[in-house]
Structure formats: structure tokens, C-alpha cells
Amino acid sequence: MKAPRTGSSQEMSQATKGILLMVLAMFFISIMAVATKWIGASYPVLQIIFIRNIFVLGLVLIVVWQKGGTESLRVNDRKGIALRALFQFGAAYFIATTIIFLPLADAESLFFAAPLIIAFLSPIILGERVGWRRKTAIFCGFIGVIIMLRPTLDLIQPLAFFGVAAAVFIALRDIWTRKLREGETANAIMFWSELGVLIGSFPLAIYFWQPITPNALAIMAFAGIFLGAAQFVMALAFLTAEAATVAPFRYTVIILTTLFGYLFFGDIPDAFVIIGVTIVIMSGLYILRREAQRTKQ
């Protein structure tokens, strides 16, 4: 006869599920990155984003239809939703551009400056208090970003600044999500943001349009489906277990993109990226730990 599960074992089970879901979401993001980089050599960035987001929006509509219906798409703060959509568009553009033109591991490493930027901007935009420990972690994290950008002028990669721009837009998007979540549904935030990306990319996608082959369309669709799936699985991970438990496993994307970058494109991170991303990850984990402690108090 099996012994009944204790509360702690149930919590452990939920934590394990949440961690596995987060790792799965990072796997999906890595697959999306490979597909985007693969097709990015042949097609304009905005055309890729436009076609990819048709499939992302399709997945969002399926979720809306199953959970909440069209009623859940009503908004109270139209300006706030529009601004969040603008930040989402900026993030989508700079993420895709960075993935296409930089090695995958380098690109993903730069994106992890976003939590540091969130911690830096939250007091300004949200009025949150930041103690000296978190300020020190932010400062150390930015040193890590500078190292990844290359410390000498003859080695600096101008394209790496696209990665920094992506991190800024990711941070602004996530901060605005915090501002909106009390008055808006998750369905509304996601739907209108993805629609905004679709509308924003449409004019230049049409202007720079290249004839598309069935194989290329399939790869773009593949990227969109995996991007949409990653967002939903990540949300499920945070619903399944505590954020402090699952959030650190976002960093598994560095391992996955390093592996895929080597297997598919022959990319190997250099010492600057390895040292820089290590500092950024340690700083991000410390900020996450302080945030968890502050929430419990």
C-alpha cells in the first residue's frame, strides 16, 4: 500500500513540473532561434517577423477561444496596451536581427541584460525601492554586458548593440506588463501586443518582400509555432511553481543555444562571452533572490 503524499512532496512535485516546463520553453525558444537564423540569410527581417507572427497570433486566438472568448480581449487602458505593443514590436525586431547576425549564444547572452535593466528602471517607472545590494548586482551585471561587447575598440562588435537594444525593449515590455496586469486580462495583453507586431511589421515587410518558397514558409511557420508555444509553456511554468523556483532555469537557454549554434552553424563562444555571461547570470540570480526575499517579507 502506497503512503499518502505529504505536503512537502507535493510541493516538490509541483516544483519539478515547473522546472521541466521552463526547460521545455527554453528548448522551444532555442528551436525558434535556429529557424530564424537559418532563414534570416535569405529573407528580410521584417518579412520573417510578419509571417512568423501570423502563426503566433493564430496560437493566441486558439487560447482566447478556449479561455475567455472575445470578452477577455476588452481593454481599459488603450494607451498602455498600445505602448506595450510598441515595446513588443521593438523587442521582436531587435531579437530577430541579433539572432540572425550574431552567433546564437552571443545573442541570447546579451538578451539576459533585460533583468538587470528591469531592476534599474523599475524604481523610475514603477516607483519600486532598490537597495544597495541590488544596485551593486545591477552594476556588476552591466560590467558583464560591457565585457560581452568587447572592451577594446578594435574588437567591438557594432551588431552586438542590437542585442542590447533587444534587452532594453524586453525590459520595457515586461515592466509595462506589470503596470497593465492589474487592469487587463492576460489574453488582452498578449493578443493586442502580437497584433501590434503584425501590423507594425506589415508595411516594410511588403516593401522589402522577397518571393517565398514553400520550404522557407514552412521554416517561418515552424519558428512562429515554437515561439508561441514557448510563451504558453513559460506561463504554465510560472503557474505551476513559484517564480523563484522556475525563473533561474531560463538560463538553460544559454546551454541550448550554445549547443545548437555549434551543431548547426559551427559557432563557439569566445572568452569575452563566457566571462561576460557568467557575470550577468550571477547578477541576475542574485537580483532574483533578493526579489523573492522582498516578496516574502
State the main characteristics.
297 residues, mainly alpha, 12 helices, 0% strand, globular
Structural commentary:
The chain has 297 residues and is mainly alpha-helical. Helices cover 78% and strands 0% of the residues. Helix 5 (114-125) crosses helix 6 (132-149). The longest helix is centred in the first third of the chain and has 34 residues, at 7-40. The N and C termini lie far apart (41 Å).
User: What is the gyration radius calculated from CA atoms?
Assistant: 19 Å
Tally of individual helices: 12
- Structural class determined from secondary elements: mainly alpha
Query: Span between N and C termini?
Result: 41 Å
Give the biggest sheet. Answer: none
Query: What coarse outline follows from CA principal-axis ratios?
Result: globular
Number of strands: 0
Return the average pLDDT rounded to an integer. 87
Q: What proportion of the residues form beta strands (DSSP E)?
A: under 5%
The structural domain count equals 1
H/E topology pattern: HHHHHHHHHHHH
Which regions are unreliable across 5 or more consecutive residues at pLDDT < 50? none
Write a brief caption for the model.
The chain is mainly alpha-helical. It contains twelve helices and no strands.
SSE inventory with pairings:
Blueprint: H1 7-40, H2 45-66, H3 78-101, H4 104-111, H5 114-125, H6 132-149, H7 160-180, H8 186-207, H9 214-240, H10 243-246, H11 252-265, H12 271-296
